[in-house]
Amino acid sequence: MEKANIDWSNIGFGYIPTDKRFVANYKNGAWDEGALITDDKIVMSECAGVLQYAQTCFEGLKAYTTEDGHIVCFRPDLNAERMIDSCKRLEMPVFPKERFIQAVVDTVAANERFVPPYGSGATLYIRPYMFGISPVIGVKPAEDYQFRLFCTPVGPYFKGGAKPITIRVSDYDRAAPHGTGHIKAGLNYAMSLFAIQDAHEKGFDENMYLDAATRTKVEETGGANFIFVTKDGTVVTPKSDSILPSITRRSLMYVAKEILGLKTEERPVYFEEVKDMAECGLCGTAAVISPVGKVVDHGNEICFPAGMEEMGPVTKKLYDTLTGIQMGRLEAPEGWIKVIK
Ligand code: PLP
Ligand code: COI
Q1: What distance in Å separates the CA atoms of residue 333 and residue 330, rounded to the nearest whole number?
Q2: How far is CA 251 from the centre of its chain?
Q3: Strand, coil or helix: what is 52?
Q4: Active-site residue (options: 184, 217, 317, 338)
Q5: Domains of the chain
Q6: Number of the ligand 1 atom closest to the C-alpha atom of 247
Q7: Model-level pTM greater than 0.90?
């Protein structure tokens, strides 16, 4: 299989169209068989539910070329389950878990020439999503839906790759208590665009959101969960009902405890505690683990000891172990790796 003519080591996190995408339609209360198609355009009513009331959710996972030349993806079952939770909360039909996983496998296999080579630093990002496609004008769920899944080769989410980033405490909230912060709804991202543009204009890479009710607890960023390491080496991650249950974070906490033998805690993390942490990182499919070097809270700087040049030692161990599992260099816990080819 001849690979696509792409400068793999120099791509960023952008959209590069690939050969095939999977599409299934929900009509009259049932999903059709679905198919892999070449057309990357969607035609829909001007009044489609997604266009009027943002009835849409999505997922994100990656496929990797392993050291021994296989193509694999990481824990697609958990993305399928999270999408089911998102759909239920948004009054959308559920796309069955086994069909979701099959769509991932088939679409990646059909785009094999776009799966970045082992060691290139790039990966194949997989974007499943669903939206209300039939007309809706009164505020209510659509009748018909489309599930789609495409792939695109990507490089690092943050420019500079594994170099520490600078984030700021946001004055805007990401998610309301009892709202939709725990699901992957498009609306959570639409309302973060103003805050992220503003952060970028002011020289920050991302926003640290605090809990909307009390503004005392760390929640997450616009696209990743937090992991902290305390000075005594405990790996701590915020527990909150209004953050996305990151699959990367859940995997890292397992790696920390069961593979690296570290102490772990999932608990509310007060912003007051952040200044005493030894390390801080953002974790997610796109972010992998991006080390945070500095948090700025309205002019007050919190600088982590590892500085702005490299990851802290525990973050590095977590990063090496997780990416080692994903790229087939290390043995994976049961069920984590789905072999595609
Ligand atoms: N938090 C938010 C808001 C996200 O968009 C993402 C990305 O998916 C994550 C966390 C990380 O989740 P995961 O590790 O499942 O990709
Ligand atoms: C992911 O990590 O898959 C996401 O969806 C985050 C997004 C900000 C790219």
Answers
A1: 10
A2: 13
A3: helix
A4: 184
A5: 8-154 (3.30.470.10), 165-325 (3.20.10.10)
A6: 15
A7: yes
Q: Is the CB of 251 under 6 A from ligand 1?
A: no
Residue 21 CB burial class (10 angstroms; 0-12, 13-18, ≥19): buried
Res 266: pLDDT: 98
pLDDT value at 160 more than 90 = no
User: Which H or E run includes 117?
Assistant: none
Distance 327 CA to ligand 1 centre (A): 20
pLDDT for the residue 270 = 98
Q: What is the pLDDT of residues 140-151, one digit of tens each?
A: 999 999 999 999
8-27 pLDDT per residue, tens: 999 999 999 999 999 999 99
pLDDT for residue 156 is more than 90:
no
Q: Residue 333: which of 268, 277, 252, 278 has the closest Cα?
A: 252
Ligand 2 midpoint to CA 286 (Å): 5
User: How many angstroms does the Cα of residue 156 sit away from the middle of ligand 2?
Assistant: 12
Which among 204, 203, 274, 208 is positioned nearest to 236, based on CA atoms?
Answer: 274
| 257 flagged as catalytic | no
